[in-house]
Amino acid sequence: xxxxxxxxxxxxxxxxxxxxxxxxxxxxxxxxxxxxxxxxxxxxxxxxxxxxxxxxxxxxxxxxxxxxxxxxxxxxxxxxxxxxxxxxxxxxxxxxxxxxxxxxxxxxxxxxxxxxxxxxxxxxxxxxxxxxxxxxxxxxxxxxxxxxxxxxxxxxxxxxxxxxxxxxxxxxxxxxxxxxxxxxxxxxxxxxxxxxxxxxxxxxxxxxxxxxxxxxxxxxxxxxxxx
Length: 227
What we know:
Layout: E1 2-15, E2 18-31, E3 35-39, H1 46-53, E4 61-66, E5 69-70, H2 76-86, E6 87-90, H3 102-113, H4 117-130, H5 146-159, E7 164-168, H6 176-193, E8 196-200, H7 204-209, E9 212-217, E10 220-226
């Protein structure tokens, strides 16, 4: 079953008086349970595609259907609610809230979802353990290593039980060993819990772990390989 269907997707914007064509008529389907990497050189359109799939940006033309919803037809409020209930995001810069502990950062989405306190605690503790942070829930981001902060970001992304996690260069700021551990964690969540992952990445380790690699060049899909 498809969780993402992209058809004829184009994104054009002006930059310095020049029209930039970030995406040029992309067609892509992501099935539930996939572990997919988007690769390509800088400026190929990876992050733009990820942002459009996640409803963080609007297409110039074409459609994005997410979990049965046409994103272009949704009101801002409905789009925000869909993101809250069905999507998890992992950003390269972590985007953790500095004044909150690891537990509170991971709990944040559950608070927005209105999950009762006892259930929030159970799910956050379970999620922190799943990403290798058991016992570190009371630490703030500045008390954690870069790899641990990224694991908190992954915990936050999955604690709300999303159907799809979008990860933009999740290993870019990590050393090789830490990055490998993070990939193993996300692969485990994919295989055991069925979470669908789509990555934008330059990292060969992510591409090796992915079961599908979609290569973008100049805003178009140049190759789509399933392993």
